[in-house]
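PTS system, glucitol/sorbitol-specific IIC component
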Amino acid sequence: MDFLVMIAEGFIGMFQKGGETFMGLLTGIIPTLICLITAVNAIIKMVGEERINRLAQKSTKNIILRYTLFPVLAVFFLTNPMAYTFGKFLPEKQKPAFYDSAVSFVHPITGLFPHANPAELFVYMGIAAGITELGLSLGPLAIRFFIVGIIVILIRGVVTEFLTVRMMKSKGMDTTNNNSMSA
């Protein structure tokens, strides 16, 4: 009989934990995201979508900048998970690669700029604790994470764009489409 009670308590406990997580999101990140989305959309409306679109297209013509500078700026200024919205300024064929680059950079940036992804800070701090225990400085570690992160996002962006274009062509899709505002 105790076994059935344990199963029932575990079952309902799972949903209680889910409810706690949901409430944490409702009182934590969701209001922040709504405010951030509103602010970014207001800035886009004030500056003008066409101007921002042209600036994004000019700054992402170079494949190296597209998969290094653009995701770094997105993650630094908009933080995780809002950074991915920068992809709306890119042509369809580049959106998956931008997302891959940006999502791959949310951890390497935390050593130098913890505001960009505070949820991942525990990973960096765990590694940092070991480095500190050895009597070593954290600065070089943070800089190396950052530099290696940029190299990795460039490689991932280039490879993902290549694969995306190849898959689009195999499906007969237009890869010259420059419609960068469609979501």
